[in-house]
Write a structure and sequence with these properties.
By secondary structure, this protein is mainly α. The protein has helices at residues 2-12, 39-44, 57-62, 68-82, 87-102. The protein is 47% helix and 0% strand.
């Protein structure tokens, strides 16, 4: 898949590519539960009644502690790293291209300081 992602970046550049997903719709019909653990379920998993990370039902069925969003984010981030995108190019893929395409004004300080 990396080969095709690289070709897309070569042809279009980061400013014309945006991240998109059909999550959580992709789990419909597969018997996944998009709810979160109850306190009892967290306690049974050794997380304790009052604490612990909430894990959605789909991840529970796969026996993982990561949310499906976290897994998708990790996969895409690895692809962006493999394509050697800098931080600004990654921002275009993650949100700036979509904001521009849909005409959404975003006033956000992503870098923790300075102008957006």
């Amino acid at each position: 898949m990396l080969k095709y992602v690289r070709i897309a970046f070569e042809l279009f550049g980061a400013r014309r590519i945006m991240f998109g997903s059909d999550w959580p719709v992709c789990g419909v019909g597969r018997g996944t539960n998009f709810g979160h653990f109850t306190k009892t379920e967290r306690a049974e998993e050794g997380k304790g009644e009052e604490g612990g990370e909430q894990v959605n039902g789909a991840d529970r069925e796969r026996g993982r502690g990561k949310s499906a969003w976290t897994e998708w984010h990790d996969v895409v981030e690895k692809l962006l790293e493999a394509c050697e995108l800098d931080e600004e190019e990654k921002e275009w893929v993650w949100w700036r291209t979509a904001a521009e395409a849909y005409g959404v004004e975003v006033d956000v300080d992503v870098g923790g300081g300075g102008d957006a």
